[in-house]
Design a protein that fits this description.
heterodimer, A: 130 residues, alpha+beta, Archease, Possible Chaperone, Chain: A, domain 1, five-stranded antiparallel beta sheet, 2 helices, 45% strand, B: 466 residues, tRNA-splicing ligase RtcB, seven-stranded mixed beta sheet, 26% strand, globular
């Protein structure tokens, strides 16, 4: 699940899930909520392959991939298809549709970036520049 | 880590300081230009904590400085200024921000509001058709890779060959519209992909093109120098480097995040990632940043070309030809400057260069006045030649949307006599006037602090919002 947190200048999203993979899914849902529209929905899918030195950066890269796809391919994500997280790598297929994104997200910042397991639950946080 | 607001000391009527001793990792004090009322608003979010974090940057000199429009950002607060001593002081991409060389350009029309008369609505409508707005919108300029390289190196000068803009525009642009040292090879393929089709587009968020009435002149001599007269009309353009700049920042924050351990740099916030300006990573970023800044100057030039086109279609070619550029100024940038016999890299994140006599534009919120200021000597002595960049957000976007529906705001603005064109009602609500501090108050503090003084006040009569 995701929750938008009050932030004066930008968009801060808190993420919570039962698994680490669930955090990535929650981040996708948050991005979809920001960018989705009621327009025509031509289905589309993209394969994503990422590598990063730590999992928090991998989370930032994951959302940055949606930023990039929104801008160059008018892609609005809806759901995670195949998803594999191993070591410093992530391979996934993301399903969604082509549309003009409702909200411009410029980038995922590293400000207060978090991904950690606390008492058996996974927590994440990203701050988006909008 | 919470901010040390309890250690705030009042230096004078408009300056407050958190001493460097407030935190073990601060290298210099954190200073805020504000009066008591603005300060009360500023301490309501985490902007002062972010300013203290900036004070930990290696090589920072004198103080981490905040303008009265400061608010919480990411890494640096918006409204923050940090100067590091070259050659080895650091450069931090987050200290410039993702929208590299976001800035404002003011055009002055050769006619009065009375002469515009009933053609106002048609003009605003035509402006909205001439400047693509919104997320990811593609412009009408198609650049080959070589032409894009030309823009990255030469900025708006590269567009003169296409008949976009004129020499006079360049002469009225900060740094003549071209930062030296631009290195297109440091601009990634992904940055090029994002930005290549966006030249001449406004973007979204708080970006706009606004038709304004010059409703008051405070300094007749300076106003005459800028070509502004009471009752006249202006167009203010607010945009930046679009997806190209956003990606340049993302790429180089990541590079520096990985490099910091090699330089023994530890910081309280990962978004402040930095490297010595003289290092390979520092030089690479500065080359890419200059290229993105040149792209942004060119973007505003292409938007201004669209504005002149709209003016021509509604008001005729003579009016378009006589529409002059007053100035174009950046408010997200890092520049090498000499201050008090030191060569410094001055980061301005949501802050405007304000050298003595230079034009400074302070956009208000939608529906409120904007200001033309002139920089003063006090800025050279107190803020590395810097003034504020706007009113500064006071409410989050969510809070603004909860307080008013976009449709209702649109009706209220129209009732005030402002013609509004905006793709999204939600986007409109996020930029509601009450979501910002009082711009008149912010400008008053800037003037009282001796950073810049009021020249003219511009009232909005038409808004095209991204």
């Amino acid at each position: 699940m995701h929750r938008f947190v009050e932030h004066t200048g930008e968009v801060e999203v808190d993420l919570e899930a039962a698994s680490e993979a669930g955090i990535f899914e929650a981040a996708l849902e948050a991005f979809a909520e920001l960018t989705s529209t009621d327009g025509d929905r031509e289905p589309a899918a993209h394969r994503i392959e990422l590598a990063a030195p730590d999992r928090a950066l991998l989370l930032a890269d994951w959302v940055n991939e949606f930023v990039y796809l929104a801008e160059v391919a008018d892609f609005v994500p809806e759901a995670v298809g195949a998803f594999e997280l191993a070591g410093d790598r992530l391979v996934a297929t993301v399903e969604g549709h082509r549309d003009h994104p409702r909200q411009l997200v410029k980038a995922v910042t590293l400000n207060d970036l978090e991904l950690a397991e606390v008492d058996g639950r996974w927590h994440g946080r990203v701050v988006l520049d909008v | 880590m919470s901010s040390s607001t309890s250690e705030l000391v009042r230096v004078d009527e408009t300056l407050w300081e958190i001493p460097a001793s407030a935190r073990r990792d601060m290298r210099v004090p954190a200073r805020v230009f504000a009066d008591r009322e603005l300060l009360d608003a500023i301490v309501g979010d985490r902007s002062l904590q972010q300013l203290e974090n900036v004070a930990t940057l290696p090589g920072i000199v004198e103080a981490a400085i905040a303008m009265p429009d400061i608010h919480q950002g990411y890494g640096f607060p918006v409204g923050g200024v940090a100067a590091t001593e070259l050659p080895d002081g650091v450069v931090s991409p987050g200290g410039v921000g993702y929208d590299i060389n976001c800035g404002v350009r003011l055009l002055a029309l050769p006619l009065s509001e009375a002469e515009l008369g009933p053609r106002r609505e048609a003009l605003v409508h035509e402006l909205s058709r001439s400047v693509p707005a919104g997320a990811g919108k593609h412009g009408r300029l198609h650049l080959s890779p070589a032409e894009l390289d030309g823009v990255l190196v030469d900025g708006p000068r590269a567009l003169l060959r296409r008949g976009i803009g004129c020499e006079d525009d360049l002469e009225h642009t900060e740094s003549l519209g071209r930062l030296d040292g631009a290195d297109p090879d440091e601009v990634s393929l992904r940055a090029r992909e994002r930005g290549a089709g966006q030249l001449g587009t406004m973007g979204a968020g708080n970006h706009f093109v606004e038709l304004q009435l010059i409703e008051r002149i405070y300094d007749p001599a300076a106003a005459a120098g800028f070509g502004l007269a009471e009752g006249g009309l202006t167009v203010l353009i607010h945009s930046g480097s679009r997806g190209l700049g956003h990606q340049v920042c993302s790429d180089h924050v990541r590079t520096m995040d990985a490099a910091m351990v090699r330089y023994g740099i530890e910081l309280p916030d990962r978004q402040l990632a930095c490297a010595p300006a003289s290092s390979p990573e520092g030089r690479a970023y500065l080359g890419a940043m200059a290229a993105a800044a040149n792209f942004a100057f060119a973007n505003r030039q292409a938007i201004a070309h669209g504005v002149r086109g709209a003016i021509e279609r509604v008001l005729g070619s003579a009016v378009a030809a006589q529409t002059r550029q007053v100035y174009d100024v950046a408010h997200n940038i890092a520049k090498t400057e000499r201050h008090r016999d030191r060569e410094l890299l001055v980061h301005r994140k949501g802050a405007t260069r304000a050298f003595p006599g230079q034009a400074v534009f302070i956009p208000g919120s939608m529906g409120t006045s904007s200001f033309v200021l002139a920089g003063q000597q006090g800025a050279m002595e107190r803020s590395f030649g810097t003034a504020c960049h706007g009113a500064g957000r006071a409410l989050s976007r969510t809070a603004a949307r909860k307080r008013i529906a976009g449709g209702e705001l649109r009706r209220r603005l129209q009732a005030q006599g402002i013609v509004v064109r905006c793709l999204s009602n939600a986007g409109l609500a996020e930029e509601a006037p009450f979501a910002y501090k009082d711009v008149e108050h912010v400008v008053e503090v800037v003037q009282e602090a001796g950073l810049a003084h009021r020249v003219a006040r511009l009232a909005p009569i038409g808004v095209v919002k991204g």
